[in-house]
Protein: EG45-like domain containing protein 1
Amino acid sequence: MAIQRIIIAALIATSLIYMATAIPGTATFYTTYVPSACYGFQDQGTMIAAANPSLYNNGEACGRRYRVKCTGATNQGVPQPCTGNEVTVKIVDLCPGCGNDQLDLSQEAFSAIANPDAGRITIDYNQV
Structure:
């Protein structure tokens, strides 16, 4: 019984920490993964993202991993785009046209957390 309480308390604490450190932002997706600003023509898989210029910080973000969760829609076309899933993506590229707190996810990563028909979603993300 005591072990179950400890496990439940740990899960609650983890959720609270995630919510406290998550950065609200937006996400879009892209489909051409190489070459990338960080790795050139080296394939880095499909759970990847391009960082906005501020986060990218002249390449310092290359290789960092971020947990991303869809939190809602940004347009009326798909009013409830979120799947309820989270993904962890690796920063492999720069998104020069992205705004602050925006990530450009691979199409596969975006599709794991939201309906791609939405095109743009609101997210929470944090470095892991």
Observations:
- Residues 47 and 84 are 17 Å apart (CA to CA).
- The two ends are 31 Å apart (CA to CA).
- The longest helix spans residues 2-21.
